[in-house]
Design a protein that fits this description.
Blueprint: H1 2-31, E1 41-46, H2 52-61, H3 68-77, E2 87-92, H4 97-106, E3 111-115, H5 122-131, H6 137-144, H7 147-152, E4 168-172, H8 177-191, H9 194-202, H10 207-220, H11 227-239, H12 247-252, H13 263-267, H14 290-297, E5 306-309, E6 315-318, H15 321-331
Antiparallel strand pairs: 1-2, 3-4, 5-6
Helix pairs in contact: 1-3, 2-3, 5-6, 10-11, 10-14, 11-14
């Protein structure tokens, strides 16, 4: 009798083990089958704190998997149920359940592209970041203009103007504003080569002065090839104790600039009005690119002291004020003296 009971128990155990094995194989086969051969892309959001069951249910509702229960079992068997990372995921119905699970475990979230052109100031950068849906523009500006933030990042100024390096960035949504800003400052530090630091010291300039002058060169240059010449003009004027007299700095110092620079603007004192102050303004007026920084560090060898826009993006350069006045009449006043 005892032997018979043992035999029955053994047979039941074998039967259950066999059934379990078959169920496992069935689940593994399901995990390798996509919903469709031709994929339909969908942006899926896994919210912070969202549990596995709710995630699986939403995936099923979105048509990305066929069975929420099996997805839940798959995650638990793989011991990944607590490893899913919040964020936006670019998924497809052509992906297998295992691929979807793997993407969420690895945190391969969808990234948004934002391009910061050379010469953008903080306001323009904040607008670009907001347009990409990555941060609120006002919050971005508040953070970038926070003296404590600048201090933490070891920037020798009260704001981060000039230090958010122009480049193309990829960020996930939900990243806090400070993290975006820190990434841009890190990119500036990576771009500012050790030899540039040495060259700045050679010129008797601090990095802050280099960035400040480079931002002016960036704003004054319409053609990339002219950057070293424009930089040479400003270096020459600084050496002679001449005012820089550059409109972009004046514009930067005008609150709510409407696009028209007037004579009274040139005559009104601000820390950025280089028609009134001598030397450099207190800080950058925009984010210069690598070529503008390089132009300041390695300016063209030239005696030019003036330049005037020719109307085609290029400039006419002069060594004397008399020659400069003739160029102004020709290119700015249409040969009409005043």
């Amino acid at each position: 009798m005892v032997k018979k009971l043992i035999l029955i128990g053994l047979l039941l155990f074998i039967g259950l083990a066999g059934a379990t094995g078959l169920a496992y194989l069935y689940l593994m086969a399901w995990a390798q089958q996509p919903m469709a051969a031709k994929g339909q892309d969908k942006l899926f959001t896994l919210l912070p704190g969202q549990g596995l069951k709710q995630t699986a249910k939403t995936l099923e509702q979105e048509g990305l998997i066929s069975d929420a229960l099996r997805f839940t079992l798959l995650a638990r068997i793989d011991k990944k149920e607590k490893l899913l990372k919040a964020g936006e995921y670019f998924l497809s119905t052509a992906m297998t359940p295992r691929d979807i699970l793997g993407q969420m475990v690895e945190g391969r979230v969808h990234l948004y592209r934002v391009t910061i052109p050379e010469g953008y100031n903080l306001q323009q950068i904040a607008t670009a970041v907001a347009a990409a849906g990555l941060a609120d523009a006002n919050d971005f500006l508040k953070t970038a203009r926070n003296p404590e933030m600048a201090k933490q990042l070891e920037i020798p100024a009260d704001t981060l103007e000039g230090y958010l390096f122009p480049d193309t960035y990829y960020f996930p949504r939900g990243l806090n504003t400070a993290a975006i800003i820190v990434t841009m400052v890190k990119q500036f530090r990576a771009a500012f080569k050790p030899e540039w630091k040495a060259r700045a010291a050679e010129l008797g300039m601090t990095i802050h002065q280099v960035v400040t002058l480079a931002s002016i060169v960036e704003k004054e240059t319409g053609v990339a090839e002219e950057r070293p010449l424009v930089a040479a003009v400003f270096h020459n004027r600084l050496k002679k104790g001449m005012r820089l007299e550059t409109d972009p700095t004046v514009i930067y110092g005008i609150p709510d600039f409407d696009g028209n620079i007037r004579r009274k603007d040139l005559e009104t004192y601000t820390p950025y009005n280089t028609y009134k102050i001598k030397g450099l303004p207190p800080g950058p007026i925009a984010s210069p690119g690598a070529l503008a920084i390089q132009a300041v560090l390695y300016p063209a060898k030239s005696d030019y002291l003036y330049f005037v826009a020719k109307g085609d993006g290029t400039h006419y350069f002069s060594t004397t004020f008399k020659e400069h006045r003739r160029a102004v009449v020709k290119y700015q006043l249409g040969n009409k003296s005043h």
